[in-house]
Design goal:
Radius of gyration: 19 Å
Order of helices and strands: HHHEEEHEHHEHHHEE
Strand order of the largest sheet: 3-2-1-4-5
CATH class of one domain: Alpha Beta
Length: about 270
């Protein structure tokens, strides 16, 4: 029972039965899922429950719009193949704070983010700049977003073109056209914003967002990638491809359907001899 309490507390107190059980198994504990469920109920602890998604897109019909090149297929064959971007807002005692994310869809890793008191283009551009600096992607990257004016702005589209990134844009008001980004933002709202609010300041939101992203990328277990953290999934990919092996891209598929990939350069090593 102490180990169950510890795992729950070490993971933002947001894990439910399934995630606690998977983490215990990763740590070498042999325990049945039903036992974890019973003991969590006895301890009075449970996982966080996600709320309804909120719309933040403000479309600008006057801006030119790229085609949707993703078509709701958000599972990429390798890192730095498909990024998705979106933002949300948080109400604080000092006014609204807007938080933008850039997510690599291979392992759902957050590769760029920015919190801002302004909803102007600069804050989503800053999130993109962080992603470009951290990842240094080679050719072949697509960037997908909704039709928000920030993402269709001249400054943003010019930066994508300058970086050699192919733009892709979904439709307005249809959450499925940017579903992965909205899913990650939904986790952020449930695990940070709703759980820890009300919020006094933008600084508080920014600090807790920073802590959550570090945990999310490096320690949070994600079901779509076989209940391992995003950073671990990427490490496994590069280690496997450097050995000339294979990587199963979808934990729900049998091993026979795993896709074989050639060796790809790690972020930051593109073009290195």
């Amino acid at each position: 029972m102490p180990e169950i309490q510890r795992v729950w507390e070490e993971n933002f107190e947001v894990y439910g039965v399934r995630k606690v059980w998977h983490q215990l198994r990763r740590e070498g504990f042999s325990v049945a899922r039903c036992t974890v469920e019973r003991l969590m109920r006895k301890l009075g602890i449970q996982g966080v429950i996600r709320g309804k998604a909120q719309k933040t897109t403000i479309p600008d019909p006057a801006l030119p719009c790229p085609l949707d090149k993703v078509n709701r297929q958000f599972r990429a064959p390798a890192p730095n193949t498909l990024w998705v971007s979106d933002f949300t807002y948080v109400s604080t005692w000092q006014g609204f704070v807007y938080v933008a994310f850039v997510i690599d869809t291979f392992a759902n890793r957050i590769v760029g983010w920015r919190a801002s008191r302004s909803q102007q283009t600069q804050f989503v551009l800053d999130a993109l700049e962080q992603a470009l600096y951290e990842r240094r992607p080679a050719d072949g990257l697509t960037h997908h977003s909704d039709r928000g004016g920030q993402y269709l702005s001249i400054r943003y589209t010019e930066r994508l073109a300058e970086a050699g990134i192919e733009p892709s844009v979904g439709s307005v008001g249809d959450s499925y056209d940017n579903a992965l980004a909205e899913t990650i933002i939904g986790l952020f709202k449930a695990e940070v914003i709703h759980r820890l609010g009300p919020w006094k300041s933008a600084d508080a939101v920014e600090w807790e967002t920073l802590k959550w992203i570090d945990w999310f990328n490096n320690r949070r277990l994600l079901g779509p990638i076989a209940n391992i953290p995003p950073a671990e999934a990427e490490t496994n990919f590069y280690e496997a491809t450097e050995r000339g092996g294979s990587v199963c891209l979808n934990s729900l598929e049998p091993f026979s359907k795993c896709m074989f990939r050639s060796v790809m350069p790690r972020p930051g090593l593109a073009g290195a001899g």
